[in-house]
Each structure stands twice: as C-alpha cells, then as structure tokens.
TrEMBL record:
InterPro entries on file: Flavoprotein-like_sf, FMN_Rdtase-like_dom, NAD(P)H-dep_reductase
Protein name, per record: NAD(P)H-dependent oxidoreductase
Lineage, highest ranks first: Bacteria, Bacillati, Bacillota, Bacilli, Lactobacillales
Organism superkingdom: Bacteria
One family name in Pfam for this protein: FMN_red
Amino acid sequence: MTKFGIIVGSIRKNSYSKGVADALVAGLPADAEVTYLNISELPLYNQDLDENSPESYVKFRETVAAQDAFIFVTPEHNRSIPAALKNALDIASRPWGQSVWGGKPALVASQSVSGIAGVLAHHILRQSLVFLDMPTMQQPELYIGNVANLADENGQITNEDTKKFLADSAKQFVTFAEKF
C-alpha cells in the first residue's frame, strides 16, 4: 500500500485547488493511504529555529517523511506559488542537509480561474521539486484553466470530463510512483 501525501497550496476555504486534489485522489487505488497535510498553520520558516524547532515543524517533517509519494495542487499567486506552499517546502527541507523530501515521487497540478491555468506557478513548483530531489511525473501536464466553470460553489470539480482526466492522471501517477 502506497502512502500518498496531498499538499494543497491554497489555504482558502472551498478552494479550487482542494477540489482538484479531491478529484485526483478519486483516481487513487481504494487501498491507498491518503493524508492531506495542513500547511495553513505552519509558522514562517526561520533558520534560527533549526536547532530547537517548534513542534509544528517537527510534526510536519515527520508527516512528510512518512509518505511514499506526493500530489501537489497549487493556484498561482502573483505569477508564483502561494507563500504557504513555499513555506511548507522550506520547513521540510531544513535544517540544511536534512530534507525529508528527497526521492519521493511527485505529481504537480495547477489551477486558475483564468485561461492561463497557473502555468507559471506549476513550473516554479517543479523547479523547487527538482532541487528537493523529487522525481516528478512529466506527462500529462495538469493545467486546469477556467476552473470556476468546472467546479461548484464549494470548489469541488463537477465537470465530468475534468473529473475523469484528473482521476486517470492519478492512476498514471500510481504507476509512476511505483517505479521509485
């Protein structure tokens, strides 16, 4: 059984990123262990705290370390990834030389209410994952544009074609992750 960690870059209630993540999770095997990692309450990373990290850092790092693979879903904020997502990446990659991300396969999806589909955030996140030594599935590329037209008021994906595409992509990710 594979343990999949799900990190949603948006911390907004009823976020579209959470809806995309849920549609991806629907494509995972029934026996998959799925953990949504809450990044909304992590204090800002501060290197001064490396020697005596707050409990929230320690628990987050332990949860990351316990996963076999990760699905990241992000919106685009000012042509980049959200601050909360970058903070989570930093916390679990520190102290220097003690990153718990390394070697864990990753799937990246981005979404936007515009047609650009969060493409810049998607690629910025991928760039960070390369540095963190996370093999990232290359195809299919998961850019979900005009997401407000594909989801309900709770952010959940309702468009059947999009739900199928995301579930099928998750199935491909399972095969990809098994290689590692």
